[in-house]
Amino acid sequence: MIRLFVNVDHVATLRQARGTVEPDPLAAALLAERAGADGITVHLREDRRHIQDRDVDRIRKGIKTQLNLEMAAVEEMVRIALDTKPEQVSLVPEKRQEITTEGGLNVRSQKEHLLGIADRLKPVGIRFSLFVDPDLEQIEAARQIGADSVEINTGIYTETKEPEALQRELDKIRAAARHGAGLGLRVFAGHGLTRENVVAIAAIPEIEELNIGHSLIARAVYSGLEKSVKDMLQAMEQGARMRKT
Ligand code: PXP
Fold this sequence. Notes:
By secondary structure, the chain is an alpha/beta fold. It has a single domain, classed as Aldolase class I (TIM Barrel, Alpha-Beta Barrel). The protein has 11 helices and 8 strands. Strands 1-2-3-4-5-6-7-8 form an 8-stranded parallel barrel, surrounded by 6 helices. Helix 4 links the parallel strand 3 and strand 4 (88-91). Helix 2 (25-34) runs parallel beside helix 3 (53-62), helix 6 (136-144) runs parallel beside helix 8 (163-182) and helix 10 (214-223) crosses helix 11. The two termini are 13 Å apart. The chain binds pyridoxine-5'-phosphate (PXP). Pyridoxine-5'-phosphate is lined by residues 7, 9, 43, 70, 90, 92, 100-101, 131, 151, 190-193, 211-215.
């Protein structure tokens, strides 16, 4: 069955807006688990704009499922990952000015650097994932440096409205997922997914795991986080039932 990792960064964004103690990303993570989430994702950004080091530590100790630590491919974060020992690290490109992660990693242009990070994380049992655009060459490069998985960026798909362009984006994601799985990579996806647009993504047979944050937290404002997570799981199941294999 397709797994859901709930990204709780946006809970921390709201807390940081007031510099207070609530809402608490750990409390949100526990509610997400109770609603059926398979894991929790946090992005510890270099500028610490939402998740703080203390959040990572508390969530690591407090959750019963798995922690996926999203981070930039920099020495400071590698050290934090080695200390924290999440089940999985997902490397993402990071720019200070961006509102959210804007695209996939350029794996091809920094193979040596990323290989150096993989060689430090994998021996201590941390699974190593790379966030990439639906680009076959980037996926091949991820395989070459020994990534366990790729997370395919669904950002452009989720922003596209025009039906033909949308179909093209979906086809790109399908081809990328097939290619990744064919190379022996586990295939995940995420960015901009909502209860509506997730169905077609969950229907792609090779996709095992989704990382979803903003829409879940946004809808939790109306209906509570548990209901928001449950509704998303239901939409994912609806998609997964459409799989042909
Ligand atoms: N995957 C990656 C690599 C991300 O950076 C993000 C955003 O933090 C997500 C998934 C989740 O995206 P969204 O918040 O749009 O659901």
